[in-house]
Write a structure and sequence with these properties.
heterodimer, A: 90 residues, alpha+beta, two-stranded antiparallel ribbon, 4 strands, 21% helix, B: 262 residues, 35% helix, globular
């Protein structure tokens, strides 16, 4: 599972920035094609729902999904062998 | 989790302003409908006029967009003609409290089996920010440029007094609790009234120094007080800050209801 923001629906209200307990959503800086500053995702692999939704069989946190007034935040299945960014901490 | 097949995806993005709370209320309602497992051909969403009443236009099921304030009258008709239908009414504060006040108290008195969700943004948002019956005392709006001098209407308490079977109040910030409250309201036979305080940064916030969306959310969150805590403070005789409103479940009872599905 991975977190996606639908840019064709988002109006840039930044409510997700306010509610995410992990601080995954960060206020964006660049305008998109519709003239809206869409939030950017900061290491979205930390989202509990992305990691554990299949294991628990239900939506775990889902606050951003519920509060998004524009129904823009969803989770989608990843394609097989999609490249991941891996951070190694020493 | 809201069901994407209940949304009219071709109508999205909707017309609500940036940061409007009405979209969150649609999410919570659809999550509750999903939890209830209602079928699409047995559900009707009914609304009046206003920002909030645009909501059934984004939901893929039977809906009625009726005259100003008369949503509850139409909903009573639907429920009487087809008691097997699940009826949900979306209204706003101007729709329900101002022009449809009488329909509201009589629907509560009759205890018609439906769920009424009132998105109370404390102002007439769609027409440009005129003061509504729920504008708090001292708040500025287009028609109250020196601050509203009248006391505001407490819709949830009105529903309790008029006899609704389930009454709750939450804000659009408390999404999880709101979903739970709507689900309980849908399960309760009789009229379930859920008042949702929503943010309106465009019209309410602009006149009241709450122009940014986090300020408006902070205003809602800071003034909300759980009913249990409020009752305790009243018992202790402690000072309750000005502008505080109670949130939580206000009443759940079993008065005889009308039009309950057999």
């Amino acid at each position: 599972m991975k977190l996606v923001i639908d840019e064709s629906r988002c109006k840039g209200c930044n409510l997700c920035v306010l509610v995410c307990p992990y601080g995954i959503f960060q206020e964006g800086t660049e305008l998109n094609a519709r003239g809206i500053v869409v939030p950017v995702l900061d290491r979205p692999e930390r989202c509990t729902n992305c990691r554990l939704q299949h294991l628990y069989g239900r939506v775990l946190c889902g606050l951003c999904h519920m509060i998004c007034p524009d129904q823009a935040i969803t989770w989608v299945e990843e394609k097989p062998f999609e490249p991941h960014r891996v951070e190694v901490e020493f | 989790m809201i069901a994407p097949d209940w949304l009219r995806e071709d109508r999205l993005p909707h017309i609500y302003c940036t940061g409007c709370g009405n979209g969150s209320v649609i999410n919570c309602t659809l999550a509750a409908v999903e939890e209830m497992g209602w079928k699409r051909d047995e559900t009707a969403f009914i609304s009046g006029i206003g920002c909030s009443s645009r909501a059934p236009g984004y939901i893929l099921t039977d809906s009625l967009h009726t005259t100003h304030g008369r949503a509850l009258a139409f909903a009573t008709g639907v429920k009487m003609a087809r008691p097997d239908f699940n009826v949900v009414v979306f209204t706003g504060d101007g729709d329900l409290a101002a022009i449809g006040g009488n329909h509201f108290i009589h629907a509560c008195r009759r205890n018609v089996d439906m769920t009424v969700i009132c998105m109370n943004n404390q102002i007439y948002g769609m027409t440009g920010g005129q003061g509504s019956p729920t504008t708090p005392t001292g708040a500025f709006s287009t028609t109250t440029p020196y601050g509203a001098s009248e006391p505001a209407f407490d819709l949830a308490e009105l529903a309790v007094a008029a006899g609704a079977n389930y009454v709750a109040r939450w804000t659009s910030y408390h999404v999880k609790e709101l979903t739970k409250a709507i689900t309980t309201g849908m399960q309760t036979p009789g009229l379930a009234f859920i008042e949702v305080r929503t943010q309106c940064p465009t019209n309410f916030g602009r006149h009241n120094k709450l122009r940014s969306i986090p300020d408006m959310i902070e205003y809602l969150r800071g003034n909300a007080m759980l009913r249990v805590k409020y009752d305790r403070l009243v018992e202790e005789g402690a000072d309750i800050p000005e502008g505080t409103f109670t949130i939580g479940e206000l009443v759940r009872r079993r008065r005889p209801a009308m039009g309950v599905k057999q």
